Amino acid sequence: MSQTVDRALSILPLLAEGPADLGQVADRLGVHKSTALRLLRTLHEHGLVYRQSDQRYRLGARLFALAQEAVENLDIREIAHSHLVRLNEQCGHTVHLAVHEDNEVLYIDKVESRYPVRMYSRIGKPVAITVAAVAKLLLADLPEAERRALTEKLDYPLYTARSTPNAPAFLKELATVREQGWATDLGGHEESINCVAAPIRGADGRVAAAMSVSAPNVVVTAEELLTLLPLVRRTADAISSDYSGRPPKDPS
Question: Coiled-coil annotation: which residues (predicted)?
Answer without folding.
Answer: none
